[in-house]
Write a structure and sequence with these properties.
The protein is 39% helix and 20% strand. The protein is an alpha/beta fold and 459 residues long. The strands form three sheets. The chain has an eight-stranded mixed sheet. Helix 2 packs across helix 3 (66-83). The termini are far apart.
Length: 459
């Protein structure tokens, strides 16, 4: 039997007291990622189903998506019911309801397209990952489910930016607490969770080393500190970390391992729709960033190579077709790159296809920019900078060097729901060609050398 930790019990007692006392309180619960939020919810559901097994009524839980989040919640509840001795007693109805006697736990999706109107919550209303649930969906369709019953409501999640539903509920709760002294907001960051789980302590310390303490995911998911969109993408300390001391090089040196990130000029986006153009604004230059990998730089905690930028290529106003041969020669003969990640968005797919034929599938990886994929690139780029793995060559006064630092300094960031982000430059400040190429370079740096093969020679 899984026992709840003290901080989980603290929440459970407050919720059950509100339910049984028909107080109709709304709670906000922030628990660091993997800190037991879902376990708390499942155990609470088992308890309430037990208490209302004869009286009956509905408890409702919604999640941002049906697959996988809602399904995972249903599976966990069924497992806990079996562990509490209800195996063979509970039943499922309509594929999304778990019934124990006369009490029902209903699981619903909070996706914008989900049809949920008509359900009533008598016992409890839970909102899982509240930071990813639309405010409009909650206000119009879920909150009214408990109006006639003055139902107790719980919002679970981790922080993201300051515009989410969870943050709004949290701020309201904190204000109500100041007025009447009744606790409605519960917050347990990673340090609180680690007090009861040494393995979790080591895991988060590893994540902090890998991502860096200022990384948005570390700050929000583990420290539970909301971020503010529209600020600079890289802080002054991150810019300082990015600066290296090694010299720029024009060709490979020895038997090093080299990788490349290739961001293509704006003609690759002429056929894109408005949403994609907004994600990756029209650009005028093709930029290639070359780096040497240092497999001794990662250390014991961060098991990834160092990435030392050694060269930039920058072409403005030159059609892709005119660059084919030069790109292939630079990558294959000048640097002998082991991996190149190429912007394959729009007609950039043609360049990626040509380079794949010229260098091979094992070398060239096409990259399609979407909201999700660029967000992942953004997080990986920040992690590489924060961990000290990524270093720019020493300033040499060149146009490429000046443009690189201009973009790195001027770049802004925006944060969206579902823990996604984007970096960009205001059009008045220029383009993000070098920065996009840098992000693709970090993706290319996820390269593992093939082990040497051979056999012992018989004497």
């Amino acid at each position: 039997m899984i026992e709840l930790r003290p901080y989980q019990l603290e929440v459970a007692r407050a919720v059950v007291e509100s339910v049984l006392g028909r107080k109709g309180l709304t709670f906000s619960v922030e628990i660091a990622r993997q800190g037991g939020k879902n376990e708390l919810s499942a155990q609470l559901e088992v308890l309430l189903l037990t208490l209302f097994i004869g009286r009956g009524g509905n408890a409702i839980k919604c999640s941002p998506t049906f697959k996988p989040q809602t399904i995972i919640s249903m599976m966990r509840l069924k497992e806990r019911l079996n562990q509490w001795g209800y195996g063979g007693i509970w039943r499922t109805e309509m594929g999304y309801i778990v019934r124990l006697g006369n009490a029902r736990q209903i699981f619903l999706s909070a996706d914008s397209s989900a049809n949920v109107v008509g359900n009533t919550a008598h016992i409890l209303l839970e909102v899982d990952e509240s930071q990813d649930v639309s405010k409009e969906k909650y206000t119009k369709e879920f909150r009214p489910m408990g109006a006639a019953t003055n139902v107790t409501t719980v919002h679970y999640g981790t922080t993201w930016d300051d515009s989410t539903l969870l943050e709004e509920v949290k701020q309201t709760n904190l204000e109500l607490e100041r007025r009447d002294g009744v606790r409605r907001h519960f917050r347990y960051d990673w340090e609180e969770v680690a007090r009861y789980n040494p393995d979790y302590l080591h895991y988060v310390e590893g994540e902090r080393a890998r991502l860096g303490e200022s990384h948005p995911l570390y700050q929000t998911q583990y420290c539970l500190k909301p971020i503010h969109g529209g600020g600079g993408f890289l802080s002054p300390s991150q810019l300082a970390q990015l600066q290296g001391t090694h010299e720029r090089r024009r060709h490979l040196d020895g038997a090093g391992v080299y990788v490349a990130g290739i961001d293509l000029a704006g003609e690759a986006e002429e056929g894109e729709d408005a949403a994609l153009r907004a994600l990756k604004p029209k650009q005028d230059s093709t930029v290639v960033t070359i780096a040497e990998l240092d497999f001794d730089a990662g250390g014991d905690i961060v098991q990834l190579p160092g990435v030392n930028i050694v060269e930039h290529y920058w072409w403005t106003g030159k059609p892709h077709t005119a660059l084919y041969s030069q790109l292939a020669d630079v990558l294959k003969n000048v640097w002998r790159v082991k991996r190149a990640v190429v912007d394959a968005t729009g007609v950039g797919a043609g360049v990626a296809s040509f380079l794949t034929r010229a260098l091979g599938k094992s070398v060239v990886t096409p990259f399609l920019f979407t909201q999700a994929s660029k967000s992942r690139l953004s997080f990986e780029l920040l992690a590489a900078i924060n961990s000290g793995r990524l270093k720019m060559y020493a300033g040499d006064g060149s146009p490429e060097c000046r443009e690189f630092w201009l973009e790195a300094t001027k770049a802004r960031s925006t944060f969206r729901a579902n823990q996604t982000m984007n970096f960009y430059l205001d059009p008045a400040a220029g383009h993000d060609d070098f920065l996009s190429s840098l992000a693709l370079l970090v993706e290319a740096a996820q390269y593992t050398p093939r082990p040497a093969r051979g056999r012992l020679r018989e004497e």
